[in-house]
User: Fold this.
Amino acid sequence: GAVVSQHPSWVICKSGTSVKIECRSLDFQATTMFWYRQFPKQSLMLMATSNEGSKATYEQGVEKDKFLINHASLTLSTLTVTSAHPEDSSFYICSARGTSGSRTDTQYFGPGTRLTVL
Amino acid sequence: TQLLEQSPQFLSIQEGENLTVYCNSSSVFSSLQWYRQEPGEGPVLLVTVVTGGEVKKLKRLTFQFGDARKDSSLHITAAQPGDTGLYLCAGYDYKLSFGAGTTVTVRA
Assistant:
């Protein structure tokens, strides 16, 4: 089946620093990638949708200048949390949707990245 | 605002018992998906239901999609400790909207 990887799997950083999280589709080309955030005991909340080669679309309430998303290729999207603060500590999960031919409602999820900001 | 409501929020049962998780919405979705997520991992797709009234079985798991395509249920027969996890439903309408999840604990 389709595989999505994330790197790093966990990261601890100091307040005020920036952190980059990578999401890769390993065996398929992903025209669209999604970034979610999940707080403990809560569900996944969509942060933004990115299409390869174009600007990401952010959900209401998500600061685009704080959560920078780049989807430069069909297999890689990155999420950069700029000037991270403790309240940004969360579990960040990406998912990827394949190119035309696959079901549009099928997304393959990565294993997540645990971010802890001290 | 959560478009999908799941109930119950928590469920703890003994091994061998049956359980049902419900997912309800006021919106119609073109499809509905069920995921299971374990701590520290991403969600894993269990099933996608598309047609109103559809029933799908996956070993001891039975999924139903309501006739109006607004609600769904997940029934587990003879639950095992390996069924423990967070069960999430997600409705698709150009993007996935997740329910709040049901934490299932199956005690040995």
